[in-house]
Amino acid sequence: xxxxxxxxxxxxxTAVALIPATTAGLAQVDGKAGPEFGKLFAVYQRIKASYVxxxxxxxxxxxxxxxxxxxxxxxxxxxxxxxxxRLETMIDGNYSGLGLSVVSEDGAVKVISPFRGSxxxxxxxxxxxxxxxxxxxxxxxxxxxxxxxxxxxxxxxxIKLTIFRPGREEPFDxxxxxxxIELEPVTWELEDGRIGHIMVNEFSRDVxxxxxxxxxxxxxxxxxxxxxxxLDLRSNPGGSxxxxxxLSDLFLSQGQIVSQRGRxxxxxxxxxAETVFRGDIAEGIPIVVLIDAGSASASEIVAGALQDHRRAxxxxxxxxxxxxxxxxxxxxxxxxxxxxxxxxxxPKGHSVQEGGINPDITxxxxxxxxxxxxxxxxxxxxxLRGHLINELGLKDExxxxxxRADPRFxxxxxxxxxxxxxxxxxxxxxxxxxxxxxxxxxxxxx
Length: 446
Fold this sequence. Notes:
This protein has 2 domains: 94-182, Pdz3 Domain (Roll); 186-445, Alpha-Beta Complex (2-enoyl-CoA Hydratase, Chain A, domain 1), CATH 3.90.226.10. 30% of the residues lie in helices and 24% in strands. The chain has helices spanning 3-9, 34-50, 57-70, 82-92, 119-122, 144-151, 207-221, 241-250, 298-308, 371-375, 396-399, 413-418, 424-436, 438-445, and strands at residues 16-18, 77-80, 94-97, 100-105, 108-114, 130-134, 137-138, 158-164, 172-177, 179-182, 186-191, 195-200, 228-232, 256-262, 269-272, 287-291, 313-316, 324-330, 335-345, 361-362. The strands form 4 sheets. Strands 1, 2, 14, 15, 18 and 19 form a 6-stranded mixed β-sheet that branches. Strands 4, 5, 6, 7, 8 and 9 form a 6-stranded antiparallel β-sheet that branches. The chain has a 6-stranded mixed β-sheet with strand order 11-12-13-16-17-20, sandwiched between helices. Helix 1 (3-9) packs across helix 4.
C-alpha cells in the first residue's frame, strides 16, 4: 500500500495524524536494552525449537509486535493487510455488514456504539453490549479482526448474535440481516418551534462542510428564522481531528479550539478559530450540544471547545474520555504503526483523558428501559486496560458524579412512551431551546 493511500486511511482513525517515518526522526535505542533484546531472541529460539507444532516466523514476529503495543495503551496498534483494508472501506463510505463500532475487552467483543440507522441499530443492539457468539459459535478470545470479518458479509444475509447485556440475567439472541452500510456522517431535521437538529454520527472527510450545508438547508426550511440548534454528538466515536476543528470553527469567531501536547518535536500544536470558516454561522442563536458515554475523541473536542467558550450548553451524560492523539507511522508500503503520540486539551487547558467532558446539565436517557441497570456497567476510557492516566490524578468518585440521582428526572420509560417521547434527552434539549428562544419569550409577554 502506498503512503498516499495510507494517508487517506488515516481520515477515520480517531484523532489521527500522519507522520512519515524517517531515520532521523527515530529515537535511538538505549544501549541498556541489549540484554532485553537477548531475552526476546532466546524466547523466539525456544519456541522455534520446542513448540508442539511448527510456528512460522511471521506469526511469532507479529505476536511480539502486538505484545509490545498492547503494553502501551488500548489505542496503539500495528496495522497491515486486513486492518488497512478495513480503514480503506470505512473512508470509502460503505461496506456490507451490521454497522457496529466494537472494541476488544479482555478477549470479549464489546459494542462501543451502533451506527444510527444501521441493521444492528434497528434490531436494538446497544452500546455496552457484549457479543459472545456468532451463529452459535463462541467468539470469546478470538482476534477482533477475525470477529469483525465474520460479522461482515453479503448484504441480505443474516447472522445470529448472542448478546450479554449488563443488567440482564440471561444472554439473548438477535438475528440481524446484513446491509450495505452507507456511512452518513451528518443528518438533520427541522423540529417544531423552528429548532434545528443536526446529528453528527462520525468525523469523516468533509464533516465541517456537511454541517454547514445542513445549517443552510435548515435555514431554508425555516424561512430564515431558526430559533435554536441541537448539535447531536451522542454515540459518535470520533474520527478526523481536522474535521473536529472545522466543525467547531463553524460556531466560533475567536480563540483556541483545541491544543495537543506530545513528547516529540512537532507534536505540540494549537488549533484556533477563524482558520477554516469565517465567523459564527449561527450568531445569536442558542445551541445545545448533546453527548453521552459513546461520544469520544473528536466529539469531545467539539463539545469541549463550545463549552469552554460558552457558545453552547452541553447536555446529556459524561463523555467517553479519550483525550489522546494517534499518529499513523508508515512502515514500508504495506504496514503502519498507529501510535499514541500526544494528549489534547480544551481551550481552558482541561485534559479530556479519563474524565471526559462533563455536561453543563446532566440529562439521563430516561426513555431507555434498561437505564438503571446499564449505568452500572457503562464503559468509558478509564475502564480500558492500560489506558493513559489523567495527569491531574482524578479520583474515581470525581469521575462518577454524573451517576448521582437528580430529582428533576423521575419519569419511567413506560410513562414517557405513553406520552410519545422516544428520546428523552433530545426532547429535553428541544424543550429547553423552545423555552429560551426569542419567539417563545415574546409569546409569554403577550
